[in-house]
Design brief:
Helix content is 52%, strand content 16%. The chain has helices spanning 30-39, 44-52, 57-65, 72-79, 82-92, 103-118, 123-129, 142-154; strands spanning 16-21, 24-29, 67-69, 95-96, 120-122, 134-138. Helix 1 crosses helix 3 (57-65). The chain has one domain. By secondary structure, it is an alpha+beta fold. It is globular. The strands form 2 sheets. The chain has a 4-stranded mixed sheet. A two-stranded antiparallel sheet has the order 3-5. Residues 13-137 form the DUF1400 domain. GO terms for molecular function: hydrolase activity.
């Protein structure tokens, strides 16, 4: 059980994601993405996918590591508010389980677990803490989602960016 939030930490974390970008789909392991986020090193399979998607590893690394500073208790309160539920729905359209069942609960748990670790939330932390073995990420919608989150989060005074 998480110490201050009352939310359980994931007993099963995501092992792989299906990264979708335009018409492309590729299975990528979470350890591959973690390696890229921490060291900048990209596996050959991920590099091939990024080449096809016309994306740079540095850009993906930046997206994986972009973080928001937030207290986990404040985050829990916000995610249970009307605005928070809307935000979760928006995120769940971009990061979701293959079946799209229990997306909101899984996402809420991953976000709170991520914030509990270091009072920061980054995409790589959310992916690592997502409580299902597999999830899908709509890669071509990440930028749009980020802009929406930044706009919403910027309006909440207790969310420093």
């Amino acid at each position: 059980m998480a110490l201050t939030t009352g939310f359980p930490l994931p007993s099963q974390a995501a092992e792989k994601i299906i990264l979708k970008y335009s018409i492309l789909r590729e299975s990528v392991s979470i350890p591959e993405l973690s390696q890229l986020s921490k060291t900048g090193e990209v596996s050959s399979s991920l590099q091939s996918y990024l080449n096809l998607a016309n994306q740079k590893p540095e850009d993906l690394q930046r997206w994986l590591n972009q973080s928001f500073n937030i207290d986990p208790i404040v985050l829990s309160e916000v995610l249970n508010s009307f605005v928070g539920k809307y935000l979760l729905q928006q995120i769940a359209e971009v990061i979701h389980t293959p079946s799209q069942r229990s997306n909101i609960e899984a996402l809420r748990g991953a976000l709170i677990s991520s914030a509990t670790e270091d009072q920061n939330i980054s995409l790589i932390e959310v992916l690592e803490n997502y409580p299902t073995a597999e999830l899908q990420v709509e890669g071509d919608r990440l930028m749009e989602l980020y802009q929406q989150i930044k706009g919403l989060v910027g309006k909440i005074p207790r969310f420093p960016l």
